[in-house]
Amino acid sequence: MSSSIASNLSERIHAIDRFQMRRPRLSAAVAVLKKYSDDQGAHMGALIAFYAFFSIVPLLLAFVTILGFVLQGNREAQDSVLHSTLSQFPIIGTQLQANVHSIKGSPVSLAIGVVGSLLAGLGLTGAAQNTFNRVWAVPADRRPSFVGWRLRGLATIAGLGLLAIVSTAAAGFVTATTGGAVAVLAGVLLALAGNLLLFFLVFRLMTVEEVPTRDLLPGVLLATVLWQILQHLGSYYVDHVVRHARDTSGLFAFVLGLLTWLYLGGQVTVIAAELNVVRARRLWPRSLFARSPPDPG
Question: Rg of the chain's alpha carbons, rounded to an integer?
């Protein structure tokens, strides 16, 4: 009896598999998820989230310190940029604004602090580069050199520091706006534009040059839309969960929400990268029962 049930279940699953392989759009989506599974995408996304969790505060510390030098003597401008960048950052903004301050002291200690913060960020960019290299199956001898991948990481950190201001400020404007539909639509478009530039920078700098830029654009678009959704979900989480739990489990809710948000962000990035590979190399239709191909990297 049990063998008959198992046989019927297997036949149904194979029928579903044959159905999806006959539908181009559906089979393309299945191929992305299949490659994501074959590449252990969940693990790679979790690793990105892990490094992001330990890099956010040091990176923002460096950002605040450098901002203090650039806008020295203009306290109002500093406060305005920090408020738009930190206070509207989903889930962690308010806590960061209250606790992250610029590094002060001797020039030597200042330099050591900023360098240490940037090194922490390099852990994140290194994990991202390893992820993109694995997704595209880049052989080890064609990956960036020891110095090259660190220079890419520093360039990415610098670019993200500038683009994050526009992206988070626009997302916060959308969340806080109580005006008409035109104002809300303008905020959404500004946020999307900022996120689009952000992900284009990440995908281009984190991927080897042999991959054409045009092959990166579909993943950039997908990541932009999904990240925008995560930003607003993060703001909703703060408004409806963290603030109500502040007296009892506010810290736990804050850490859990941050980890969840970063984890989802890592998964979004990996799935978007997988989409690029599947589309560029036409890896569909693909059977759910197919074995994982060998990794040439």
Answer: 22
Per-residue model confidence (pLDDT) at position 251 = 63
The answer to whether the beta carbons of residues 44 and 128 sit under 8 Å apart is no
**Single-letter residue type at 16:** I
Q: What is the DSSP letter of 73?
A: T
User: Which residues lie closer than 8 Å to 213 by C-beta, 6 or more apart?
Assistant: 204
Q: How far is CA 81 from the centre of its chain?
A: 22
Q: What is the pTM of this model?
A: 0.81
pLDDT at 85 over 60: no
Mean pLDDT of 98-110: 60
With 0-12 / 13-18 / 19 or more C-beta atoms within 10 angstroms meaning exposed / middle / buried, residue 75 is: exposed
Whole-angstrom distance, CA of residue 128 vs CA of residue 149 = 10
Q: In the predicted model, is pLDDT for residue 256 greater than 70?
A: yes
Q: Which positions ≥6 away from 96 have C-beta within 8 Å?
A: 56, 57, 60, 86, 89
Q: Is the pLDDT of residue 144 over 60?
A: yes
User: Do the beta carbons of residue 153 and residue 125 sit within 8 Å?
Assistant: yes
Closest CA to 125 of 186, 206, 6: 206
Cis amide linkage into residue 285, ω under 30° from 0: yes
Identity of residue 121? G
| Token pair recorded at residue 228 | 């925008």
The pLDDT value recorded for residue 297 is 46
CA 128 to centroid of chain Cα atoms: 9
CA distance readout (Å), 16 to 2, 5, 31: 21, 17, 14
Instruction: Name every residue whose Cβ is closer than 8 Å to that of residue 176 and which is 6 or more positions away in sequence.
Output: 88
What single-letter DSSP state applies at residue 105? Answer: S
